[in-house]
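>> received
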Amino acid sequence: MIVTKNWLNEWIDLDGISAEELCKTFNAIGLEVDAHEAIRVADGVVVGFVEKCEKHPDADKLNVCQVNVGSEVRQIVCGASNVREGIHIALATVGAELPGGLKIKEAKLRGVESHGMICSSKEIGLPSMGEGIMILDESIGELVLGKNLNEYVAFNDDVIEIELTANRGDCLSIHGVARDLRAALSRPLREKNTKDEQDNRLGIGRILQLHHTETFSADLLFGAVDVKNLHVPFIISLRLAMIEETSATAVDALLAYATHSTGVILRAYPFEKFGDADSKGIITLQNDENGYAALYGKEKVSVIGVSQEKEAHFSANEGLAVIEASYIAPDLISKQMGEKKVPSCPHYYRTSRGSEPSIALGTAYVAELFEKYSDSQLYGGNIELTTTYEPRLISMVEEEFESFIGLKIDKTRITQIFKHLGLDIGKPKGSTFAISVPKFRHDIVNKQDIIEEIVRIVGIDNIPSKPLVFAEKNQMSDDLAEYKKTRLYRHRAAQSGFYESVHFVFNERAQVEKFGFVCTDEDKELLNPITATFDTLRPTLLVGLLNSASANVKVNQKKIALFETGMIFDSARRESKRIGFIVSGALESDKISNAGKPAVIDFAAFTKLIADVAGSFELVAHTPSHSLAHPYVCAKVLINGQEAGELFRLHPQVEEEFDLSQTFMCELSIDVLPYDLIEAQPYSKYQASYRDLSVLISKEVSYETIKTVIEKHVSPQIRRFYPVDRYVSESLGDQMSLTLRFVLQSDEKTLEEEDINAAMEWILGGLRDELGAGLR
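>> returned
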């Protein structure tokens, strides 16, 4: 973004502020100065008036001019194609020294004496303003013949280039930069008149209408002007050259100048694109073939905020023009461009970063230029289409400012900064501020953004440094505890013969859903998956382990024992940490002790392996919710009475699909696994006794039921019990023989036979009464 000090001064009072102070202020408030160039014209370059211009007698491309410099008329030989009688020019008089070391001397060109040089802009150190010499006018002030140009403000300027971040589209105009300076310098803006003077003007509604059938998220304002005798004043041409802006027509120049001044996106269309001289023009607003909001007349003329059709540019010097001012939210137009990119014009740069939403300011400003520098006829009123804007509200208490900044700032100072930045603030309720974010500051979304605004205006250098405070804190945070717990069980798994497997947190949705797992909801799914086979967040570790086991089989591994720890995600993308296991094929490696023929993994052996890692647990009957598990070899894992996961044999069909032999899998929640401080417990010094109890009981009765009945009838001497044998045969019919082993011990004495028999009889009685069991 390029600004000049004089141009800024038209929007905010900069009297008494040097260019160096201005640059320092820019840097302090986050508008980093990238370049600074002082525009100064040398002494001896004066205002002249060409009274007479004749062809050189001996040179076709030279002219002999009589130039009045107030005190005298000087003869100047000039080769510029645009020199003519009746114009004011910049004349370098004899003795003047121009940039580059050129010193003006008396000269004779093709036999004709020349007492000076009529200058172009580049020759006196100004930016290029096109071919030929400069033609001055009173837009720079009253033209006094013989007066040095460096006595005019326009020729004593400073061009400052500011490096803006992408979120500061509000500063892509002279008005926007001045608005930021208002807060930094505590000086008021010079208000611009945005009222439309209606006197003696034909209403725009007589010649133009706007049609639309849908609601669009865009603000539009249309005006009309019958362009006549428009010329671009020198001051505008000079400033456009300073900001490196070129324009094909005078109308384009005025619109470019107004856009850079106000920040409002302005365009001009020939009226013929919307209607004929004897009919009312109709502008139609609708979505185009790419889904963008677009304007149509007899054909498509533009995409709002993005582009303008080449044939729809107002390229004539005179005629009826339709002026459009527009605003569209930058996040909306950027998102559309990201979804479907279309050709754009230079205006898109401003639109995508946030143009000025006060579009009435832009139309009033450009209307004033047309009235001032032409004989154009403006039409009264505007055709307007605006959207309702609900300001974003951010509430903060006074203590939060000091907490964030590290400096207590007076409430009055905070309120003043907000006011100067254009942020509306309600009357503070106690210590609470309700800050309303204006439309032009779309980048302010949270408290941190509010604090950043305060800090950059107050100045980071004005916030006193404070020493760092080092205070020892408890290093055992929840995250560290979780990490240590996970590491403990990883080490246990490795010590138990498992190899760690690591996968992405993504799975292939089709494969996961095939096995009956529930994936992330569609509206919360990955927007940009890294590959087609990693298109969803994993709901389980089991599928990844299964794929790894299958890969190991393909390289002729006979014993596969893998584990993984990691996050899984439910349908709402809530995450939880799990540990998963898979064992397939041989229980151990080939060795002498098994004669090179190791046993195949079975349910009991797999359960023992999991117990080596997770500690003691219980298994209860379980119906799997997915198709990976064998429906008849599946159990729910309970740890301290809390459900921790499941343990099962892989379904034979899945084993066949993945070329696996007999395979077992388990997945446990790490949150449920014990990680408490281990406390020493007293133990009995007396001998333990073992008793087996064999009962006949219905085959339909589950072990869980039997266990529940026994737990209701155990005496304090019974420390634990577990099944050791189950026998069924045709001779037993619908019954089975179940052998249970009981461990009995007392803390007070060695148990006698009658104590043991009494305890066992009590259990047998409970099984007989409640389940109809009998002693075998």
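>> The radius of gyration is 44 Å.
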